[in-house]
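User
New here, help please:
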Amino acid sequence: MNIEEVREYCLHLPATEECLPFDEYTLVFKVGNKMFALLNLDNTGTMNLKCDPEYAIELREQYSSIIPGYHMNKTHWNTIYFEELDSKFLKELIHHSYNLVIAGLPKKKQAKLRFE
């Protein structure tokens, strides 16, 4: 997937918002006002995705294109060189991140998001 395809895919997830809260090079995707993906816009082909800590270690051991999250909590975030991954697998990683954030929201907020 290229950078525009990644952006479009993230935006297609329900209740997703995008913003540039840090700088003009880091596009942030949020659900329930919580980040689930950060997309680097300066042509490095990288993005940060939230990940279950045990799964994060497993992914890093299996894929050279997945490393501890740059400028993030390395226990919970991975940096992904997305152009090096199969698009189906990348979509799974994006969904994993999105679902982790949804699961961490209060039940009321989760219910509200389901009906928006």
Notes: The helical segments are 3-12, 53-62, 87-104, 107-115. Residues 3-106 form a domain with the Aspartate Aminotransferase, domain 1 fold (CATH 3.90.1150.30). The beta strands are 16-19, 26-31, 34-40, 46-50, 66-68, 77-81.
